[in-house]
Design goal:
This protein is α/β, with parallel strands linked by helices. It has one domain: 2-enoyl-CoA Hydratase, Chain A, domain 1. It contains 10 helices and 9 strands. It is globular.
Length: 274
């Protein structure tokens, strides 16, 4: 596990996993995704750990995918078909974009299917993949300044991997609003629509997370694992992990996405705006 990117500490019966890339707004780089997968794998296998708490260093929980890394991946990516670039890239062609999407999809699935309860404690912005991290955890707490949103469409991207998780929490109508508008909502609205369980003062965030972790740890380990297994069965998503990753990766190879990313880094409106 890369300790520079992720911190791991056992407090009481909870493993506290801290995203530690504050200088990059805790953006999800390949290294950070791998480090998070290692940390959750460690928590799953440690007998003394009964609950996992996911939090982050700095003022931002997670700004989503590392767009600079994505832009580097897209530089020089070949296209096999004239249709590629008009919305129909060929997933058979080797590209780091496909591997990157699958890496994140597997992390989301690892967290969602972990046999131990998971709690996320969010401060600041949790957007795009950062909001995805919050949705795949069993329970979510947020500080009053927390913000949530899925602005992928504004960059020519598609938030395919988080759709089933988001819809389970907020229902289809709210999910459509968040995914299609790309609007950011505050913590109070996130609690109202079911995206988070509680809004907690910043100075009590970890205290409250540990209190809930203690309550969860009073459940039998096997009973908790079986409860999570059945919850997963009852809310099984239609797409496989691989299909969800492909649905997320495909738009990244289009001209629309590349134009959206260029506009983002230039701090300009995307070409389709106005």
């Amino acid at each position: 596990m890369n300790e520079a990117l992720v911190l791991y500490e056992v407090r009481q019966a909870a493993a506290v996993i801290t995203i530690n890339r504050a200088d990059k707004r805790n953006a999800l780089s390949r290294g950070l995704i791998d480090a998070l997968a290692d940390a959750f794998g460690r928590a799953r296998n440690e007998d003394g750990v009964r609950v996992v708490i996911l939090t982050a260093a700095g003022s931002v929980f997670c700004a989503g995918m590392d767009l600079a890394e994505l832009q580097e991946s897209l530089t020089g990516v070949g296209r096999e078909s004239p249709d590629v670039g008009r919305g129909s890239p060929d997933p058979a062609r080797p590209s780091p974009v496909w591997d990157d999407a699958l890496r994140l999809a597997k992390l989301f699935d690892l967290i969602y299917t972990l046999p131990k309860p998971t709690i996320t404690a969010v401060q600041g912005a949790a957007v795009a993949g950062g909001a995805g991290l919050a949705t795949v955890c069993d329970l979510a707490l947020a500080t009053p300044d927390a913000k949530f949103g899925y602005p992928e469409v504004r960059r020519g991207l598609v938030a395919a991997m988080v759709m089933p998780h988001l819809m389970r929490h907020v229902g289809e109508r709210t999910a459509r609003y968040l995914l299609l508008s790309g609007e950011i909502i505050d913590a109070a609205e996130a609690a109202r629509c079911g995206l988070v369980n509680e809004v907690v003062p910043a100075d009590r965030l970890m205290e409250r997370a540990l209190a809930i972790a203690k309550a969860c740890a009073e459940g039998g380990p096997n009973a908790l694992a079986k409860t999570k297994e059945w919850l997963h069965q009852f809310s099984r998503q239609a797409l496989s992990i691989e299909d969800a990753a492909k649905a997320s990766a495909a738009p990244r190879l289009t001209d629309e996405c590349q134009e959206g990313l260029r506009a983002f880094f230039a701090k300009k409106a995307a070409p389709w705006v106005g």
